[in-house]
Structure formats: structure tokens, C-alpha cells
Amino acid sequence: MPIDSSKISVSIIIPVYQGKDTLERCVCSCLSQKNIAAEEIELIIVDDGSTDESGSIADKLALEDEGGRIKVIHTDNHGVSHARNTGIESATGRFVAFVDSDDYLTEDHLSKLIKYADEETLIVDETDSYAAAMKINGFNYIENAILNQDTHVWGKLFDRKLIVDGNIRFEEGLTIGEDLLFLMDVATFIGKKRVIRCIAESSYVYTENENSAMNRAFKPSYLDQLICWKKAEEKLFSIREYVSPYAFVSVGVSQILTALLVVGKVAVQGDDRDKKLDETAISKVKEQIDHALKTRGVFAALSFGHKLKVIVFRCNPDWYLRLYSRHKSA
Predict the structure, then answer these.
(1) Cα distance between residue 241 and residue 9, in whole Å
(2) Cβ count near 312 (within 10 Å)
(3) What is the mean pLDDT of the segment spanning 56-82?
């Protein structure tokens, strides 16, 4: 029997693609939350065109849940952004939470977040990046949390009405960085209103993906790491009167670090290389580093090791790739 949507406090959206080995653990952890009534939770599993057993596992879990708390939506494969957007459209709770299918929640995760959510709270963020005793506004959140490595949407509660009223969605077509841009849009829409709580908790269990890029061919989608930070800078520029100059330094540093990450992936791939794609990636990395360094204070804000990497790469990209590959294979 479907649950009464008027009683739902949290809609948990779980996008899944090829997640047969972890989906059940994830779902069970969401349904086993303590200190929150069972009828206050709904799970929306969006099967993003999985070709493994993920879809059938999701259907089985929905049938087995006597409370009728699980809704399963099957779509073609359009990526995680489309899956999350589909979940948002179907959600009915006051808050929305995003959980990745290979992660899971501790049993007190939701209760820890909800206890900070009074009627005027629009975001509760469980983060190690920034904690404040009082509520902060959207511009503070961008500068102190999002641009301080808090670029993921998991471990948070978002007011669903906020997302709907702002027509805020994840940018489709990006494979990396969609969380960052979503958070920037949410925070910008909130603006000066002090409605965000950042708390020093840790009850979301993030699972590292063991499928590294080592010995793999470089993929065009890896360049999304450059694109997302360029877009982030554009969004920040639109609110420049509300943030400090150091916010742009933070973005510039992130642009350099992601650029180095991208060129590192070019360096460590195996023999199956696309030479033209490699050249494009190296060119775009150089372009982004040169651009970031135009912001005063960016180079000074880098660690000594990253300063050295930037100098070597700018002097001789081929030499940098050889040194990096040799170091990683040692």
C-alpha cells in the first residue's frame, strides 16, 4: 500500500547504474533509520538503464517492502544528472536527500540532520569543510563550504520547495562536476537568506570507487573536470559583489588542481591511446592553468608540490607526462 505523501519528511533519491553488488545494502541502510518514523521516508530508485541486475533488484526490494516506501523508475541510460532530476520530479517529501547506490547511511544519519531542520531551514549540510553555530546565507555557503571542497550533494538535506521554486536541476551532459554546479545554483538562489545549517557530523558512508584510471585509455568525459570549474567561475562572477576576492582564488586553485588531475590521467593510461584526444586534453589543461594564474593570489595559494608541477608542466608538457608516468609506475 502506498504511503501517505502528506507525512513524508524526506524523499531519498538513489540513482543506480550497474549497482547490483551494492544497491541492496544502500536501500536497507536508508530504510533502517532510527528515531524517524517509517512513514516519514520514501525511497525513489531511478534505474539509469542498467544492463546488470540492478533494475530487477530494485523491483524486488520495492515488492518486499511492506510499508510501500520504495518507488522504482526505469529509464534509458542518460547519466546520473538525468536520474537525479527524474527523482526530483517524483519526490513528495519536505526534504530531498541524494544517496549514491554504492554508498550507505549509518542508522542515525537522517535523525542527526533533521534535528537541525526547523521551519526556516532550507539546507542541512553534514560536512567537515565548514561548521557554523548559526545559520549562514547562500553566499557564505558558496565561499566557506562549496569552494572549500564541499562539492558533493550527498550528506545533505535540501528543501524540496526550494529546488522546485528555483527550477534548479542537475546539468545533464556532464559526467563530472554536476554536484558542484547544482550546489552553486541552490546557494545563489538562496542568496542573502540565512537558512543553511552546516554541522560537524559524519554519518554518510562514502565508498571509494576502486576502478581507477590507471592503465585505461583517456576518455573525452574526463575533460568535464575542466568544464565544470569553468562554469563554476562563470556562476561566481555573476554574484561577485557578494563574495570576497579570495573566492576567485579558491576557484583558480581548483581549476589548476583539476587540470593537473586531468593531465595525470593522460600520463598513466595504457597503450590504447588516442593521440589526437591526448593533444586536445594537454592543450585545454594548459589553457586552464594559464587562465587560473591570471587571478592574483592563485599561484601563492598552491602548495609547494603543486607549484613545482605547474612550473614543470608549463615549461615542458611532454617532460611532465613522462616524469608523472614514471613516478606512478614506480
Answers:
(1) 36
(2) 14
(3) 97
Beta-carbon contacts of residue 240 (< 8 Å; ≥ 6 apart): 248
CA 304 to chain CA centroid, Å, is: 28
Across the chain, the runs of DSSP E, i.e. the strands, are: 10-16, 41-48, 70-75, 95-98, 104-105, 123-126, 156-159, 196-199, 204-205
Angle value at C-alpha 275, between 273 and 279, nearest 5 degrees: 125
Contacts (Cβ under 8 Å, ≥6 apart) of 286: 313, 314, 317
3-state helix, strand, coil in the chain (%, to 5): 50, 15, 35
Q: How far apart are CA 265 and CA 31, in angstroms?
A: 38
pLDDT per residue as tens digits for the range 125-178 = 999 889 888 999 999 999 999 999 999 999 999 999 999 999 999 999 999 999
DSSP 283-313: HHHHHHHHHHTTSTTHHHHS-HHHHHHHHHH
